[in-house]
Design a protein that fits this description.
23 helices, Chitinase A, domain 3, alpha+beta, PPIase_PpiC, signal, peptidyl-prolyl cis-trans isomerase activity, PPIase_dom_sf
Amino acid sequence: MNLKYLPLLFLTIFFINVNAQSPKNETLFSVDDEPVYVSEFIRVYNKNLDLVQDESQKDVDEYLKLFTNYKIKLKEAKALELDKKPTYIRELANYKKQLAKNYITDTKVTEALIKEAYERVSYDVKASHILIKLSQDASPADTLSAYNSIVDYRNRALKEGFENVRKAVHNGQTIYGEDLGYFTGFKMVYKFESVAFNTPVGEISQPFRTNFGYHIVFVQDKRKSRGERTVAHIMLIDKDNEAPVEKAEDKIKDIYKKIQQGESFENLAKQFSDDTNSAPNGGKLSPFSSGQLNSIEFEDVAFGLEKSGDISAPFKTSFGWHIVKLIDKKPIAPFEDMKPELEQMVTRDSRSKLIDEALYSKLYNKYKIGDNKMVLKYFETILNDSIFSHTWKLPVDFQGDKPLVKIGNKQLYFKDFGDYLLKYQRGLASKSSYANVIDKAYKTYLNNNLVEYQEDNLEFEDEEFANIVSEYRDGLLLFDLMQSTIWSIGSTDSLGLQSYYNSHKANYFYPERLDAVVASSNSEKTIKKVANLLEENKSINDIKSIINSNDKVDIIFTVDTLEVGHQSLPKNFEAKKGVSKIYKYHDAFTVVKVNSVIPQEPKTFEQSKGAVISDYQAYKEEEWLNELHKKYTLKINDDALMRVKSQLKKK
């Protein structure tokens, strides 16, 4: 299941926590004699009050309906044994493992890395590098050869210039010499990032190794982060079927001239921008930082504007033609504001290995793990070279029943580690000493078991963790139930969908539309002249040649099939064929020539299928819930409910 749908699901069910309650609690209601307690209802009601968008759901009776429906659905899910499905069990286990990381990591190390990350994202580094590729399991001879070569390149670069050497040695296969441009924190692997940020400008780093091989880095520049920009834009999209008069490039240039003539950027955006999300707000976009947009060209123009109110010349990106206006510029956000985001990034980044090492150290101390070198000597004695060809087997007289290490209440034996070694050998790619093989294998084995034991017991040690897991457990179960019962209807019940559409055709239609020409000018005199020319059936090209001069744009046209209420049409526009009266709209004057009025018309089944599926699912869910209420007996303790209402009312 895709995890991205779960937050929406949880909002729908209000993050209901169904941990078992004390028998001493008063029962609010029961589903087939399974009690649900007052304390649980009050807790989830208060916890999720701020998440409720519909004011009616804040009413206790309305909330109780949602809550009882939720409990009945869970009852059905368990009756169908959805909680025993392997996919459900696997998904829950994965979530618990993921969530547990937030509870068992070393917070001091994490905090230090977050602060360092903030310092890194506060700057951009411009650098180039030379890389000699080298695999992680390269032989000692190959490793030494690569190291000696990178040292030689550094010495040459100090004498000949880094860029000269970089270009000379690059072959794109085993040696890479690349100009990386500007980058900030989290854009490179952690070790590479650290070297780049710690190397002074104008200097070449010492050789260092990452998972890719040996590098040297030349730092060309460091600058403060460009921070955050808020801009507005007018965007026109090139349309394949557009008439020559409506070419986006020509139209954006006409709009730019009108801006230079003093017309309002915001009003022009409202009238003409093809970005329907931002156009109603005068073209204003949400604030963004460097690297957040999918267009380097757009970012460069936006960050190139210096003062609020500055406006760019028209330019093109892969999305269309733009004019950008700078509204606000801010430096990088304060640390506390960025901290939650940085924490997530740190735990997903290669620097998380430092967090892992700190965690293992903490668990070693928590579970009092001692030195096991003498025990491991035994495993060295039973190895042979077949382990490097992945064919090694445990000896016949293997002492599998001997205790190896104890973690909390869990005892591990020689057999457990022996079985692990049988699998571990498959990953060995090069020879090394038996002691080295055992040492690495045991560390990985022990670390994995320490974390696994901590995760398995976290629900008994941390109440908050237990509550969140319980919420997810039942939310995931409900998701599976709804998916199999209701949400799959769109792909499984084609006859039902068609029948529902046939019974509700009146709900699915195209609104009234206009085949129209909209003319806009900031001059009432001009628009009156245009209205007369439209009455004379003059072409748009003829009108533009009459009205607009080479260096001044007095009129802009929009030619399209428009829904009544389109942004280009004045408010309260009277939809009828012919040339309209003149309207004052967005601080400009507008006249509309309606060539034809396309009346409201019904949509076919295919044209309205998305809406039909949504409506049909809602209809089937209501039917299904009625059946569940007949299947399961719901008993509400009215006296307890009265006390709940009284208690919540006081708050």
